[in-house]
Amino acid sequence: MPDPDNTGFAQVRTAIFPVAGMGTRFLPATKATPKELLPVLDRPLIQFAIDEARAAGVERMIFVSHPDKGAIERYVRADEDLCATLRERGKHKLAAELDDHAIDPSQEDVRFVMQPEPLGLGHAVLCAAEDALPGPVAVILPDDLILGGRGALAEMIEAYSFMNRAHLVATMEVADEDVSKYGILSVTGRNGPVLMADGMVEKPAPEDAPSRQAVVGRYVLDASIFDDLRGLPPGAGGEIQLTDAIAKGLERVTLGGFRFSGQRYDCGSKPGMLQATLAYAAGQEEYRDVLNAFQPTLLAAE
What we know:
Elements: E1 14-18, E2 39-40, E3 43-44, H1 45-56, E4 60-65, H2 70-76, H3 80-88, H4 92-101, E5 109-114, H5 121-127, E6 137-140, E7 144-147, H6 152-160, E8 166-173, E9 183-191, E10 194-202, E11 213-221, H7 225-229, H8 242-248, E12 254-259, E13 263-266, H9 270-282, H10 288-301
Parallel strand pairs: 1-4, 1-6, 4-5, 8-12
Antiparallel strand pairs: 2-3, 6-11, 7-13, 8-11, 9-10, 10-12
Helix pairs in contact: 1-6, 3-4, 5-8
């Protein structure tokens, strides 16, 4: 396999987007609109994920979707008729923006595979196995939005280029009362932003947690993850858990956590989506007056 960076280690060429979930926490909005298409202002969550993968330089994007969520593929692919109509009406800037956002099949490699049943994140990743390019793969959960920095996945792939036969997971420090919501890394050491680890504990009680480093929705995984997912029995919730497959592989590969530089927002929850929207708006000049005008109202309501 080509190694343009001359590190001697395999290049991350594939990004997997698990987007088959029902989005029940956002019903009734997600009755007709996939949660990945819910907007943070005017930009759907899936667009942030696509842009992050592009910035990381992956060659192939695999969307693991559901037959009922055809709107995601319609969004991802270019809409030539819509753009032509916009140009006819003089909206050239908007048409160009839509073209920039959409996948260009002449320049970008995109695949859609189906996950007909909600059998877990591990199962979703396994659904992409036949379409993944050789070597390690990245996994991006679009409802874990990370703003700021140069892109969490790009940072992780750069760090991974100095690792050999490893799984690297994105981590952030959480409060004691929140550790039971996450997979928690068992940390053994640190080298810059990379945490060395010997395992993970899924949603432990605070007194049982090995650290406060929570695993969030970015992964760079050795290709052996697919072998470890095959035949894996259901875990928590009766689903095929990605964390179980990662733990199974630790006999052969190392495990690391990565402290990314951006700010993560849990856009799978309503409070997290609101936080992300406010943070994104705060970074754009056109919304400053609105936020400043509304701030006294918020303070008065406290």
